[in-house]
């Protein structure tokens, strides 16, 4: 059996790599967290085969937990009516109480679903069920597994099948499960993070997906030097990055619908072609990109120490910058306040 985790960089072809491993013989299950990647996988598979073959199943992570795991294995014992996406952080109930896992509307708390699987003793059955229906398991965006879900990942990695996990450590912008201090320091150190996967019996691959097809050398150089995140380019063409200092330049960028504006948050408050830094993860259709920075981030840019930003902010900024295929612009949000919806 081939069990591995591939640590990739942004735009290195994670989706393409997975799709290239698929054929019409082996039964494959592909799990991904973001809707962007779910759609990209479906589109890519359809392009390769002309349709979605019956032996290939793409599921979002929570669809897998609820419909593939919970419903067939626990619904006959436990009444549930979907998922509550607001994490239960209460310590009032014990882990053996129904209220610890399920709210008053019979919805499973999203951050404790896999903990519930452990408490009810069905983890082995889940592995057996996955092996019964599939020969290969791919998990995309593995860097976003946290809390109880990372413990669940350790269990499913023991399933008797080929397993390939793919992710970019530095694109960790969200935890699938947060519950107190459960795996709270998981992403604090890259080397220790890798060691977790070695302990699962997975081989570590840090070379296959180390070059970006999306970002050209100039953008990769900026990310490597300014953010301290090593990334190489598969491209040879050139582009530039600019800082915006004039109001008329900011206005031109705001009104240019060929250039996406990526805000730290609240992008919907601006009537322009836009997205948020973290939410742009998985997007692969932008060309020129304008990064809108709040006062703190802009100060880090001016002082040439973006690498000292808090990791959560730096990772989101890395996601945003690495959407760039062409030119890259940085602008302070103060220049866009006039365009914000009142």
Automatic annotation (TrEMBL):
SUPFAM superfamilies: P-loop containing nucleoside triphosphate hydrolases (SSF52540). InterPro entries: P-loop_NTPase, UvrD-like_ATP-bd. GO terms for molecular function: ATP binding; helicase activity; hydrolase activity. Residues 92-174 form the UvrD-like helicase ATP-binding domain. Signal peptide: none annotated. Keywords: ATP-binding, Helicase, Hydrolase, Nucleotide-binding. This is UvrD-like helicase ATP-binding domain-containing protein. It comes from Chitinophaga pinensis (strain ATCC 43595 / DSM 2588 / LMG 13176 / NBRC 15968 / NCIMB 11800 / UQM 2034).
């Amino acid at each position: 059996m081939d069990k591995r985790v591939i640590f990739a960089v942004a735009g290195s072809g994670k989706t393409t790599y997975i799709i290239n491993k698929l054929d019409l013989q082996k039964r494959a299950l592909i799990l991904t967290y973001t809707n962007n990647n779910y759609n990209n996988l479906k589109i890519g598979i359809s392009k390769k085969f002309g349709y979605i073959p019956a032996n290939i199943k793409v599921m979002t992570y929570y669809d897998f937990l609820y419909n593939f795991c919970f419903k067939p294995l626990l619904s006959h014992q436990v009444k549930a009516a979907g998922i509550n996406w607001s994490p239960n952080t209460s310590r009032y109930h014990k882990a053996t109480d129904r209220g610890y896992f399920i709210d008053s509307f019979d919805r499973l708390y999203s951050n404790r679903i896999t903990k519930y699987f452990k408490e009810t003793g069905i983890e082995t059955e889940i592995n057996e069920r996955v092996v019964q229906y599939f020969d290969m398991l791919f998990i995309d965006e593995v860097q976003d597994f946290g809390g109880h879900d990372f413990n669940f990942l350790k269990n499913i990695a023991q399933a008797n099948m080929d397993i390939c996990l793919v992710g970019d450590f530095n694109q960790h912008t969200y935890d699938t499960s947060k519950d107190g201090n459960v795996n709270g320091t998981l992403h604090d150190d890259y080397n220790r993070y890798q060691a977790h996967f070695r302990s699962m019996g997975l081989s570590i691959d840090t070379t296959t997906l180390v070059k970006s097809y999306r970002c050209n050398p100039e953008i990769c150089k900026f990310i490597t030097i300014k953010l301290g995140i090593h990334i190489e380019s598969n491209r040879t063409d050139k582009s530039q990055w600019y800082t915006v200092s004039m109001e008329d330049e900011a206005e031109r960028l705001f009104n240019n619908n060929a250039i996406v504006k990526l805000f730290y948050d609240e992008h919907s408050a601006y009537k322009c072609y836009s997205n948020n830094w973290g939410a742009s993860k998985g997007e692969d259709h932008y060309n020129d990109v304008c990064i809108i920075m709040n006062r703190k981030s802009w100060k880090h840019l001016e002082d040439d120490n973006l690498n000292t930003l808090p990791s959560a902010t730096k990772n989101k900024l890395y996601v945003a910058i690495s959407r760039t295929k062409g030119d890259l612009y940085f602008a302070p949000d103060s220049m866009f306040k006039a365009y914000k919806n009142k």
